[in-house]
Amino acid sequence: MRFVVFDVETPNHLNSRMSAIGISIIEDGQIVDELYSLVDPEQPFDWFNTRLTGISEETVAGAPTFPALWEKIEPVMASGILVAHNAGFDLGVLRRCLQDYEIDWKPTVQGLCTVVMGRSLLPGISHKLNDMCDYYGICLNHHRADSDSHACAEILLRYLEAGAEAEKYIRTYRML
Q1: What domains sit in the chain, N to C, each tagged with a CATH number?
Q2: Rounded to an integer, what distance in angstroms lies between the CA atom of residue 40 and that of residue 83?
Q3: 102-139 pLDDT, tens per residue?
C-alpha cells in the first residue's frame, strides 16, 4: 500500500488556501520520498497564521500559486491513500483550493486520519501532533508543513509496526 502523507499551512482564518504543503511518501513500510513547497495563496495573511507558521506575504514572494504547483504534485497526490493528522482539515483545505481555482479532480479520494486511528489504538492520551511526537520520540518543528507531514508519516509507521491494519481506518472523503 502506498500512502501519501501531507500537511498544509494556511495564510488566514478562512482555511480556503494554502501557504505551504509538505508531502511524505510511504511505500513498503518506509518513507521513500518527501516534497515541500511554499505556495502563494493570493490572499492576505492573518497575523495569527504568520506567527504560528512563520510564513508571510514576503516569505511566499516568488512561490508558485496553487494551480501551478498542482500541475506538479497532482500525480503524487493521486498515487496513493491520502493521509493527514486531522485529515478533515487538510483535505478540506485541499478541496477548497481545488474549488476556488475551478480545478477538476476526483470527486472522492481514499484517506486516512492518524488522529482517528490513534484514538482507536491508544485511547486515553492526547493525540495532538506534538504530543504524539513526544510520545514516540519523533523530532518535530511544529506548524512547518514539511516537518508535520514527516512526523505524521512516522506516527503512521509506528501504528503499522505495532500491527494496526490501515484498511480499517481508510475512509472516502468528498472532494467536490
Answers
A1: 3-174 (3.30.420.10)
A2: 23
A3: 999 999 999 999 999 999 999 999 999 999 999 999 99
C-alpha grid cell for residue 98? 481545488
- Provide the pairing of β-strand 20-27 with 3-9: antiparallel
pLDDT of residue 176: 86
Separation between Cα atoms, residue 135 and residue 28, nearest integer Å = 24
Going by their DSSP bridges, the two strands 81-84 and 3-9 should be labelled as parallel
C-alpha cell at 114: 492518524
**pLDDT score recorded for residue 48:** 98
Alpha helices in the chain (DSSP H): 47-53, 66-77, 87-100, 114-121, 129-136, 145-161
| Beta strand segments in the chain, E | 3-9, 20-27, 30-38, 81-84, 108-113, 170-174
Sheet containing 30-38: give its strands across.
30-38, 20-27, 3-9, 81-84, 108-113, 170-174
**Which has the closest alpha carbon to 37: 56, 22, 51?**
22
Apex 28 CA angle, 138 and 126, nearest 5: 30
Question: Per-residue pLDDT for 91 more than 90?
Answer: yes
Distance CA 87, CA 19 (A): 17
